[in-house]
Amino acid sequence: MNVPLFAGTRYLTTAIDYVNGVPHFGHAYEKIVTDFLARWHRLVGRKVFFLTGTDENAQKNVEAAQKQGIPVAQFVTQNAETFKKLCKDLSISYDDFIRTTEDRHKTVSQVLFQKAFDKGDIYLGKYEGLYCTGCEGFKTEKDLVNNKCPHHEDREIEQISEESYFFKLGKYKDHILAYVESGAVQPESKRNEILQRIKQDGLRDLSVTRINREWGISCPVNDKHKIYVWFDALINYVSGIGYPTDEKFKTFWPESIHIIGKDINWFHTVIWPAILLSCDIPLPKKVFVHGFVLLGGKKMSKSQGVTINMLDELATYGSDQLRYYLLREIPFGDDGEYTTESMITRINNELANDWGNLIMRLVVLLQRNFGSQTFALTTSEEIFLLDLKKVDVLVDTFKINDAIDHMWSQVKALNKYVSDKEPWKIKDKDELARIVSTLLVAVRTMNAVLGPVLPATSKKIAELFDFPSDPNAKLVTVNIPEKVILFEKVEVKQEDASQVPTGKKKLSFSDIALHVGKIIAVKKNPEADKLFIEQIDLGEKKIQIQSGLAEQYTAEELLNKYVVVVTNLKPVTLKGEVSEGMLLAAEKDGVVGIIQSKEELLGKRVTLEGEELSDPKEQISIDDFFTVKLKAKDGAVFCQDKKLVVDDVPLSIDKIEEGRVR
Questions:
Q1: Catalytic site positions
Q2: What CA–CA distance (Å, rounded) separates 400 from 392?
């Protein structure tokens, strides 16, 4: 493929994974996204190093090993292999896999601890406070919800009082504020969370060792102590590329882009920069904080029963199918809903019907008219019109969904070319050969462009058409087998389609009652500053709902707006006030915009463009509602790529053009 070459280097990292359990959707999503970025940057000519790995010194690994009755070293080794297998199954093209029990990592951790100590940034003291073994982190009362860590509700918070070495985190407050404010932390909503926390709470000195532990990296200044896991774990980003003398470190640092989940934002955007500053190492270029993969509107949690077996889904649907779904379905940086229904829809309607269908049409043309033949990879008709520079800008600014949407528009355009040309009607062999050659040129380039999304399929197509590896090669000899099916369509059994792992029935769009309403009164809930109580006129009746819009709108801004309301939700009581529905809004990077309609459509039902809907269910729960995926894009609202309309008039969005609808 002839693509523009872009200068520069990219050092891409995932968070390293605890090996106390089996891989889950969060692990898969983060690795898939980072792999997509790595593959794209390699494709367009950048120098790339991609690091992932496992965090093996955590106390939770010790606890898990003890429960299984096996030595900790054996436990972490066998589980690390599970994560390596996950990478293989997902076609993750990492350049190195770092394990924090390796000597290369232990050595660098001790070197950097010693450097910070010698600088006067680490001192011996006593720690008294709250500790979550799930996070391997210390907590304040403000961090807890009902005396539990919000991320590990199944674990008790420990009250710890013990000798510890402390790192002078507060010493670097001004430097860290400047770093975060510079835009290094993205997206903006996650950057603002950190800035607000630093400015409100300040930076307390950080405990960086634990005493009386057999497992872990020995503290170089006192062998009674082990280095605290979050000090040693973060150091993997430099130990994995050979700090301080290896050529990889000299080449790729600080061109680092850390891809991390939002639950470890603080560690990567405050603690890690402070360690680097103390050790006189330049700060990483960017930290991008992504959201969670949700199920029924909730974060997946085995202890809470909100879970789906990611390895089963991988085995059922396939690696490329799962990659495509997660990359295209979830707006990068936001939380995103996983549903089996939407997975199947994307496989059948997009992978099979669009890309798979295009390849099949080309194969059939060859089978019926040419068989084995050499074609010139040149054409006088340019049909590959994808703006690669535009895609590169979108990828390099982490707008992954937009980049793939742009790619997919070209897939659809190529299918349209075949439909317009109607080659099955053409009798002239030379004209047919010209069309086939034109398609081969376009498919060859499109296949390379989709490689970062669908690596296994891309390899299969390249082998199918025997595309030469040399991007400048002009000839290809095609030998076509009798049958080519890239993506098997998924047959949906009715009894299976109605179920989600939590036991909730999955809904169709028809099951939801969405109506246009007018906000005729707004006031704050006296028991909750973030909640508005709104009176909604639906034409034939009036209802009261509550919304969490008080941080985004004033009451005056909402008054008299024509909005979209879910009218068949079960009524609930929030902070002493009833709520009989839900007002729809879209969210992107912390900015919320309400979904709006026109005045003359008051009371009318929202439908899908080009479809007639059956009657909605009488009542649904909020969990039921979240099984139907809605998204905002290009200023409109969609359900499975069909616009939401009222009397054929599309809905609009206040403030933003795209985002997650909630």
A1: 24, 27, 132, 135, 149, 152, 299, 302
A2: 10
Asked whether the beta carbons of 517 and 565 are under 8 A apart, the reply is yes
Structure token digits, residue 153:
């509700």
374 φ/ψ angles, rounded to the nearest 5 degrees: -95, 130
Q: Which two tokens stand for residue 283?
A: 């700060």
Inter-residue contact 326 to 32 (CB < 8 Å) = yes
Tokens describing residue 486: 């890239």
Residue whose entry in the numeric block shows the structure tokens 């996070």: 135
Percent of the chain at pLDDT above 70?
93
Residues 6 or more apart whose Cβ sits within 8 Å of residue 340:
313, 497, 500, 506
Q: State residue 389 phi and psi, 5-degree precision.
A: -65, -40
Listed as own residue / partner, the contacts of 200-205 with beta carbons closer than 8 Å and 24 or more positions apart are 201/140, 201/142, 202/170, 202/173, 203/169, 203/170, 203/172, 203/173, 203/176, 203/270, 203/274, 204/169, 204/170, 205/125, 205/166, 205/167, 205/168, 205/169, 205/170
pLDDT digits (tens, 9 = 90+) for 529-554: 778 999 999 998 999 999 888 878 89
Lowest-pLDDT range of 292-296, 425-429, 518-522: 292-296
- At 65, list the tokens: 């090993």
Angle among Cα 333, 337, 341 to the nearest 5 degrees reads: 140
